[in-house]
Amino acid sequence: DGGITQSPKYLFRKEGQNVTLSCEQNLNHDAMYWYRQDPGQGLRLIYYSQIVNDFQKGDIAEGYSVSREKKESFPLTVTSAQKNPTAFYLCASSTVEGEAFFGQGTRLTVV
Amino acid sequence: GQNIDQPTEMTATEGAIVQINCTYQTSGFNGLFWYQQHAGEAPTFLSYNVLDGLEEKGRFSSFLSRSKGYSYLLLKELQMKDSASYLCAVRDGHTGFQKLVFGTGTRLLVSP
Fold first, then answer.
1. What is the share, in percent, of chain B residues with pLDDT greater than 90?
2. What is the C-alpha radius of gyration for chain A, rounded to an integer number of angstroms?
3. Is the pLDDT reported for residue A103 higher than 80?
4. Is B41 at the interface with chain A, CB within 8 A?
5. Is the bond into B112 cis (omega within 30 degrees of 0)?
6. Closest CA to A32 of A67, A78, A59
7. How far apart are CA A100 and CA B111, in angstroms?
8. Rounded to the nearest 5 degrees, what angle is found at the Cα of A105, between the Cα atoms of A104 and A111?
């Protein structure tokens, strides 16, 4: 079955640690996106990529990094520079013109 | 830059009709999407408009006016399961650097 998979579903991180969230898709989509969602809020764009080996900053990229070495994969690293990382993180993919499909999300908590 | 506005919250009664509005300002418009999101879950796609006019899909319809930077989502024959957040999203930018930007979402509460 085609789809987009995020892992893990829940993640706990100690303050000062980097952590990487996985996102894989087998839909052959060129575009991939990372969003952050805080309780009761909308989705804010962190990074996006339209082709392999290229990505662009979104509205809240500070404290985050990404890579796009393969078409299927777009991992997000939450670095220690991100001051308030506790949130729900959503990865999505799309064709260049079409609707985005979302993974199930990763809920990150800093302990 | 871009700015997308939606009402924060709306309430309606089961069986009724509700219209959720979305206004936007973008540098390069290339389509508007509506998504539904239940609490704690990922958004799911509802509709897409790129040309002016109305798109109908069952109980859901979406309208777009590009000249006014305005869209609405119309939900008919409301059911309790329609209680969710509804997100308006705009594909903003030019070929090669198009990003998908979301509004803050509208929480819809359907009561019996």
1. 84
2. 13
3. yes
4. yes
5. no
6. A67
7. 30
8. 145
